[in-house]
Design brief:
160 residues, mainly alpha, three-stranded antiparallel sheet
C-alpha cells in the first residue's frame, strides 16, 4: 500500500524545470498566436487610447509613439510607412513646429482595430475552452501568486 502511494506521488510530481518548460511553451504559443509584439496592433491601440484621452484633433507625435513602444526610430518609420500605405494612419506636420510629425488614426485604422479586438475576444474564448470555470479561476490565482512573487523576488513590474 505504501509503495502504491509513493508511485502515485511520483507520477503527480512535476519538477521546476518541467514547469518552466510548460510556461515557456505557453508563452511562445501566446506570443505568436497573439501576433507577436504586434507592432501595427500596438500602434493602433496606442493611437486609439490617445484619441480617447486627447480627442481626434490632436495626433500623437511620432517621437512620443516611438518612446511608448520602446523601438528605434528606423523601425517605427518603417512600420508607420506600411500603415500609411495601407490607409490605417495618416501623418501630418504640426503647424506650430514643422519638425514634429503627428500620427492620426484613419477610419480604416479604427475598423481594423475593431476587427482585431473581435478576433482577440474570439481567441480568448477558444484558448481556455478546455478548462472549467473553476480551473480557470485556479489558474488565474496561481498565475497571480507567481507574478506577485516574481515581482518581489526579481524586482520587476508585473503590470502590462
Amino acid at each position: 500500500m505504501e509503495e502504491e502511494k509513493q508511485s502515485t506521488d511520483t507520477v503527480n510530481t512535476i519538477t521546476n524545470h518541467e514547469l518552466l518548460v510548460l510556461l515557456e511553451k505557453s508563452g511562445h504559443f501566446l506570443y505568436h498566436r497573439r501576433n507577436g509584439r504586434g507592432g501595427q496592433r500596438r500602434i493602433l491601440i496606442l493611437l486609439d487610447r490617445w484619441e480617447n484621452e486627447h480627442g481626434n484633433e490632436e495626433g500623437m507625435s511620432q517621437q512620443k509613439l516611438q518612446k511608448r513602444l520602446g523601438i528605434r526610430s528606423g523601425s517605427i518609420s518603417e512600420i508607420l510607412g506600411k500603415m500609411e500605405n495601407s490607409s490605417l494612419i495618416r501623418k501630418a506636420r504640426l503647424s506650430s513646429d514643422h519638425r514634429k510629425i503627428c500620427i492620426f488614426l484613419t477610419d480604416e485604422g479604427r475598423e481594423k482595430l475593431e476587427r482585431m479586438r473581435e478576433e482577440c475576444r474570439r481567441q480568448e474564448t477558444l484558448l481556455f475552452q478546455r478548462l472549467t470555470a473553476e480551473e480557470q479561476t485556479e489558474l488565474g490565482r496561481i498565475m497571480e501568486k507567481l507574478l506577485t512573487g516574481w515581482a518581489e523576488d526579481f524586482s520587476f513590474s508585473n503590470t502590462l
